[in-house]
Amino acid sequence: MEPLRPQFRQALKEAHPGLTDADIDRYEELLAARFQIDPDREPQRLNEIDRQREELLRTRMPRYREVRQRMSSTGGASA
Amino acid sequence: MAETVGLVQKLKWNAPGGWLFAYLGPDPSSTTLLTVVIGPADPPHVRHSKQGVMRLLEAAQLGGYPVAAVHPSGSVISELRIDPLAICAIGQPIHGDFFAVSGAGFQPDSTLVFEMGGASVTVTPDMVRPHLVLVGGLPANVPVGRNQLSVRSAAGTSSTVPVDVSAGPLTTVRVLHPGAPKAAPYTIVFVANPAIRSETGTIASDQVLTNRPTYQGGVVYCMQNLFMQVEDVLAAQGLDARFRIVSIFDPTVSASANTALVQEDAPDIMETRRAVLAPFLARYGENADVVIALHGSTTHTRASAWFTSDDPARPSTAFTYDAAAHVHGHFNTVPGSAAIPASVSTGLTPLHEFGHAASDFTNGMIVDLYVDGGPGGFQVNKKFRALSTDPIPNNFANYDGAGYTSDLNRDALGYPASWVSYHPVLIDPTRPDVMDNYWLTANPLLCRHDRLDYDFLRDRIGAKASR
User: Chain B residue closest to A42 (CA)?
Assistant: First the structure.
């Protein structure tokens, strides 16, 4: 998938005090791993990764969607 | 042996009587009268041949193409040719639609010149390749009706071909390049996505179908990204001249589970729905190697791709990777695919996602290099050390008998201290790999693949193009 722009990463950290690059990297790693799983062959493994990803978002980056929309609407990042 | 070359200015054809008069010449006032007559004693194969000449003369008159008529004695045509044209319009030119012209040796400064009645309109294309000139939307100032079209550059002007310009309607399926003249050329299909499956599973129409200019702009940006950058993995030695490239924009499609080619993946990813892609394309008689679905979502704008699933039951080309036997499959059971916002206008996203989509789940995945990740499956461009403190091996891999060294520095980005992964050597060590985070350089459009990805992709696509 498309890599994160550095401006978006920075905005994520500003919106989530305490969020670290390691947290974001972990999320990105899960996402990349997800797209390496054939959804037709291993749907359960894919679902498990999605569950971990959602948990990470919920606990460490609850405002991710809000940051994305703000960046998109200001042209700061499409990704 | 006499030969007359010219346009078919007038035809008198008495089909029941078996005779045809053709007036050939450069203009209506300067013609040569030639004839085709089916005699009562002509055997069936001669009659068939003469009928074919008659039909060809009629087609040449309607199309405005010059013919070369051989008439050994007198006015009786014994043979008829339409000589190869220097350029060929791919479909008819329609205001606001894509328009492409194929040929050979097009220069980067090429323009399209439409002439009618002594006036001309010059159209600057959005993409020029040696074999293809592409306009993303034909301007409305090109006059409707029969025009003479040529391709002009500082190097010269091509001969003209007649084209019939119209104001509409816009096409549903537009071939942007026909590719190699074979049954199954390597094929990339761009699709205006008809519907989106939401995070909650509901299906709704995709607004991209109401915004054709944005869609066409997205296709043009993708084409420029794939074929016109410094990275020439798809363009070197004219590899892309063998590609069939098709656009599908069908505003009549209703939103349904079968037409939702993409789905939202919370919180911001759009992904293709692999199972519905090939059946959807089949409606239009298309069969793709890679499908690029351009969508109109404004909330799920992060692009993604799924690898191809090669068909193991069909022919393939063998290769080795670190002495293990593998194959480049010639056909797929599921095409590679990417979901990209139609509004894409910056960065290297189409080329990056194409790198994923053109590779394969089993026969070699070209993976993201901007995360560390871990072992699993056949990853072409990433390997792993046991410990992050272990030195990066100098040799990365042996692909099909050739050695590839490792990228010891990861461009100027450096490998984070915690990472165990490492990558193949870069072609351009001054910029990140196409499959790495290309946003981390001033101009992503200058990024290159690494040497291994480059060779692997060219071999793989070349194998498919050879089928």
Answer: B361
CATH number at residue B144: 2.60.40.10
Give the model's confidence band at B86: pLDDT under 50 very low, under 70 low, under 90 confident, else very high: confident
Which stretches does DSSP call E strand in B3-45? 3-14, 19-27, 30-37
Residue that wins the pLDDT comparison between B101 and B412: B101
DSSP-assigned letter for residue B265: E
**Interchain CB contacts (distance < 8 Å): A and B:** 96
Domain count within chain B: 3
Does B295 lie in the same domain as B211?
A: yes
Residue of B nearest to A69 (CA): B299
**Alpha carbon distance A19, A26 (integer Å):** 11
B 107-136 residues with CB < 8 A to A: none
Measure the CA–CA gap between B119 and B116, rounded to whole angstroms. Answer: 5
> Over the stretch B412-429, which tens digit does the pLDDT of each residue have?
899 999 999 999 999 999
B215 interfaces chain A, CB cutoff of 8 Å: no
Q: What is the pTM of this model?
A: 0.92
Indicate if B323 and B456 belong to the same structural domain. yes
**Pair of tokens at residue B464:** 């498919």
Domain that holds residue B325: 174-368+441-465
Q: Are residues B217 and B269 in the same domain?
A: yes
Ramachandran angles phi, psi of B322, nearest 5°: 50, 45
- The answer, yes or no, to whether the previous bond of B169 is cis (omega within 30 of 0) is yes
